[in-house]
TrEMBL record:
InterPro entries: 6-hairpin_glycosidase_sf (IPR008928), 6hp_glycosidase-like_sf (IPR012341), Glyco_hydro_9 (IPR001701), Glyco_hydro_9_Asp/Glu_AS (IPR033126), Glyco_hydro_9_His_AS (IPR018221). Coiled coil: none annotated. GO terms for molecular function: cellulase activity. The keyword DNA-binding does not apply. This is Endoglucanase. It comes from Carex littledalei. The keyword Signal applies. GO terms for biological process: cellulose catabolic process. It catalyses: Endohydrolysis of (1->4)-beta-D-glucosidic linkages in cellulose, lichenin and cereal beta-D-glucans. It is an enzyme of class 3 (hydrolase). Belongs to the glycosyl hydrolase 9 (cellulase E) family. Its EC number is 3.2.1.4. Keywords: Carbohydrate metabolism, Cellulose degradation, Glycosidase, Hydrolase, Polysaccharide degradation, Signal. Residues 1-22 form the signal peptide.
Length: 487
């Protein structure tokens, strides 16, 4: 072998070893812990005295007062100071599913995961307590909020509340609220039976409201929910999703019959706060796989069609992958689709392994190990095994985004600078190239583009803004990988 070839071969071996080491030493349990800390940073309302993030304080303590209702609590969706009901309910559903599916693998973090669920479900109980007359679905005017850059603790822009009613319906947001409450009821079934019963009763009311008064909240409240969280997929997916969760929570077969009457969109290759078809299919397919319930057999076909649409090398793959191996679906906040897809693959892998089953994507055989490996590669990419060597989870590793598009993280803490940061004065911090003064531990940002490029730029919100619905499904997948990596 010539010297040049020897050196080249040696370098390839070194690179291979380095990549293997980086992959094999990822701390999934540490990432799980950090991912749950992020939900503390997103809390609105009266914060507990003991918190992992000392730079946050209570906020939104008068929310709902304009209508004489208590709407304190809940989560800010992303880097702003608005509480959007649709993504918050989806976040709560996915946190609940993470606990239901992988809670036994969370170890000491199970308590924190339940706390994260309860912060969302407590708020959703308040928002739904006036059903069937009204479901409160948003606090804050997004246009006015987005024209300011200020801490949530200083928020003094009008915080109007918005609701859906029988005459101005919102089957999508009501359906997701029902799903969240039903899923959360399962989380607390044994640890707090009284609370669990409250949740399921509210879930039934929300579902009845969603089904009886059909319509999209994007029509009823278009001026304040669009383009931020328009329900582009319509509301049939939320009705299906809610029915699936109510069946899981109650074992009432009428919800299965309802789900079958709705049908499903088997051509969807995205699972998100907007589109629930793949999630509902996987949830119902599990019942067929594990319990041989023939009533839901059609949903296994839908679930596996979704898997085939996202698996690399599948003859029916309809998504793209970046050169570095990241599933790539859309320009804005792409990692939300990565974390949801990884979660569904993890859930399905677990079910297939337990039942010793496989399936086919055309001529490609798919077994549980393949699904787990694809999910693992996506999570590994997020945590730093990528061409830039950057963790897209803030606070994980030594190389992570420093200029996150997030008001509270980018502004001086109220505990350090007690003077108010006004609507306009906050923009001096927005436009600076300095790193954020407060580390938004555990937040997963929108992520890189289709060529694996990432701008660590506060102004590039499509890449640098985190969101609760990016993190929520990742909680479950991290627990799954943390447990399985120990064997």
């Amino acid at each position: 072998m010539g010297l040049e070839k020897f050196i080249c071969s040696l370098m390839l071996i070194i690179i291979g070893v380095a990549h293997t080491t980086a992959t094999s030493t990822l701390d999934y349990r540490g990432a799980l812990s950090k991912s749950l800390v992020f939900f503390e940073a997103q809390r609105s309302g009266k914060l507990p005295h003991v918190a992992s993030l000392s730079w946050r304080s209570s906020s939104g303590l008068n929310d709902g007062s304009t209508e004489n209702v208590d709407l304190t609590g809940g989560y800010y969706d992303a880097g702003d100071n608005v509480k959007f009901g649709l993504p918050m309910a989806f976040t709560t559903t996915m946190l609940s599913w993470s606990v239901i599916e992988f809670g036994k693998k969370m170890g000491s973090e199970l308590h924190n995961a339940r706390d994260a669920v309860k912060w969302g479900s407590d708020y959703l109980l308040k928002a739904s307590c006036h059903l069937p007359d009204a479901l409160y679905v948003q606090v804050g005017d997004p246009d006015k909020d987005h024209s300011c850059w200020m801490r949530s603790e200083d928020e003094n822009t009008p915080h109007p509340v918005y609701k859906v009613t029988p005459s101005n319906p919102g089957s999508d947001v009501a359906g997701e609220t029902a799903a969240a409450l039903a899923a959360a009821s399962i989380v607390f079934r044994h640890s707090d039976p009284h609370y669990s019963k409250q949740l399921i009763n509210a879930a039934v009311k929300a579902f009845t409201f969603a089904d009886k008064y059909r319509g999209s909240y994007s029509d009823s409240l278009s001026s304040v929910v669009c383009p931020f969280y328009c329900s582009y997929s319509g509301y049939q997916d939320e009705l299906l999703w809610a029915a699936a969760w109510l069946h899981k929570a109650t074992k009432n077969s009428s919800y299965i019959n309802y789900a079958k009457s709705l049908g499903c969109n088997p051509d969807s290759d995205t699972f998100s706060w907007d589109n629930k078809f793949p999630g509902a299919s996987v949830l119902l397919a599990k019942e067929y796989i594990l319990q041989k319930n023939q009533d839901v057999s059609e949903f296994r076909d839908h679930a596996e069609k979704f898997m085939c649409s996202i698996l690399p090398n599948s003859p029916s793959m309809s998504v793209k992958y970046t050169p570095g191996g990241l599933l790539y679906k859309m320009t804005g906040s792409n990692l939300q689709y990565v974390t949801t897809a990884s979660f569904l693959m993890s859930v399905y892998a677990k079910s297939l392994r337990f039942s010793k089953q496989t399936f086919q994507c055309g001529g490609m055989a798919v077994n549980p190990s393949l699904l787990r490996e694809v999910a693992k590669k996506q999570v590994d990419y997020i945590l730093g095994v990528n061409p830039k060597g950057m963790s897209y989870m803030v606070g994980y590793s030594n190389n992570f985004p420093q200029r996150v598009h997030h008001r509270d993280s980018s502004l001086p803490s109220v505990n350090i600078f007690s003077g108010p940061v006004t609507c306009d004065s906050g923009f001096q911090y927005y436009h600076t190239s300095n790193p954020n003064p407060n580390v938004l531990t555990g937040a997963v940002v929108g992520g890189p583009d289709e060529n694996d490029n990432f701008a660590d730029d506060r102004d590039n919100f499509a890449q640098s803004e985190p969101a609760t619905y990016i993190n929520a499904p990742l909680v479950g997948t991290l627990a799954y990988l943390a447990a399985s990596s120990q064997h």
